[in-house]
Design a protein that fits this description.
- The chain contains five helices and five strands, in the order αβαββαβαβα.
- The protein has 164 residues and is of the alpha/beta class.
- It has a single domain, classed as Trna Endonuclease, Chain: A, domain 1 (3-Layer(aba) Sandwich), CATH 3.40.1350.10.
- The protein has a five-stranded mixed sheet, with helices on both faces.
């Protein structure tokens, strides 16, 4: 039976290993803040460091990869859920309004959902939304799963045909 477990940044580890394995030849930023700050805080004379400091409350993508002709926004989740799709769609909109990423604003944006435990419903929904889905299961994941309750080790069981 699963015991009390300490919180660890497992999904950040997942995205870091995924980036190293798949995007190491491109520049990328993990936990990239997206969007702009409210107009009342965007006062004249602020430099970029001050702007980033007051913008810490902004949403962030797990990773943004800067390819020569494209930007890839990535959300990583051990067990994906419908919110991951909505987050990626929101991040795509916010990306174009992120001052520190202005040099990349005209590049096409691709969305990518990285997951370690398959949920066929989420995968289908993501594909319908034109989001690339990528299975990525690092070696350490089985050890982590062993401390979870059985129902946490898999996705909810939904009949995909119920969605059609």
């Amino acid at each position: 039976m699963a015991g009390k477990r300490n919180w660890q940044p497992r999904e950040m580890r997942l995205i870091a290993e995924y980036l190293a394995a798949n995007y190491s030849k491109y520049p990328y930023k993990m936990r990239q803040r997206l969007g702009s700050v409210p107009a009342e805080l965007d006062l004249p004379g602020r430099d970029m460091a001050e702007y980033r400091m007051i913008g810490v409350w902004r949403r962030w993508a797990d990773a943004v990869v800067f390819k020569p002709n494209q930007v890839v926004i990535i959300e990583a989740s051990i067990r994906p859920d419908p919110g991951d799709i909505a987050k990626l769609q929101l991040y795509a909109k916010l990306f174009k309004h992120t001052p520190e990423l202005e040099p990349f604003a005209n590049r096409p944006v691709a969305l990518e959902l990285v997951y370690a435990l398959e949920d066929v419903v989420i995968i289908e929904l993501a594909r319908e939304a034109k989001i690339k889905v990528v299975y990525f299961k690092p070696d350490w994941l089985d050890e982590y799963l062993s401390v979870l309750y059985p129902f946490e080790r898999r996705a909810p069981r939904t009949n995909v045909s119920d969605l059609k």
